[in-house]
Amino acid sequence: MAAPVKKREIQENVVKRDGDDEQESSGSEDDEQEQVGESGLEIQVDFEGRNPQDPDYHGIKTLLQQLFLKAHIDLGGLTDFIIAQNYIGSVVKQSEDFEGSDEEDVEDTFDVFGITTVINITDRQNLPCIQQLRDLLQELSSDHATDAAYTMIKNVLQNDSQPIGLLINERFINIPAQISIPLFENLISEMKRANSRNMPFNFSYYILICKLYKMEDKKIGTKTKNNKKNNSATPTIIWSNPEEEIFAEKALISFEFSVENESDSGLSGTWTETDDEMKPYRRVLLFEASTLQSIINTIKNQLS
Known about the structure:
Blueprint: E1 7-17, E2 34-37, E3 40-50, H1 57-68, H2 75-84, E4 90-94, E5 112-120, H3 128-144, H4 147-158, E6 164-171, H5 180-196, E7 205-215, E8 222-223, E9 229-230, E10 236-239, H6 244-250, E11 253-258, E12 278-288, H7 292-303
Parallel strand pairs: 6-7
Antiparallel strand pairs: 1-3, 2-3, 3-4, 4-5, 5-6, 7-10, 7-12, 8-9, 11-12
Helix pairs in contact: 1-2, 3-4, 5-7
């Protein structure tokens, strides 16, 4: 029997919806603020975090799809696994008492605005989706990591005495990073509670796959004596989830790879305010589990 749903109010956040160029003039309610900025309509929305449940299946799967893209992963099986362990992790939902929502205009797929959870990829290797995750990590590190980083990831994956947790931290791109703080804090509390019941959430390492974009300013460049443009400047990095940059600073090893040739999901959002080309990447981080709490504390201090 599934565990009872636990709801956790997160906070009031602003969701920015790009592409809304016009707004009809009307009176504003006290509990809802709307304003039109240069980048679109801003709506004040209440979110809550709660345990994943069966009705969240399509929303969670869609969010996983924007992370893994065309990787050979059974996302349906992975989604089922996340829902089955619904005593760990949270989905981000619009608060039920938000009066500005129109249920008829909200598709089921978009009911889930984010998912934050952890998966033990050491304990359940018999599951096809978990084995596929392990194979993917080893393949990606072989193709893109340094020799030292590849060796470390390979050794960690093969050492079953030091369990690895895959952190999943996905949400719509326009939802503010502050929402991650209560989600991570709750995740830590749930893992402690699960460990006290001898459940397999006592990890030695975590792996986090981050979404980022690299942008080269085409307007900036130097000319060589042969009148050729020098584009060797370091590109600007934009993190899809800004708090993950703090994870990257604490990582033991990391490597990245371009996903420019893979079709990204529309859920990842629309970037504006620049004419420069933004190329999508994934960065894989490996860090010690003992550092997770300090990372969350740093995120809380920097984003509060």
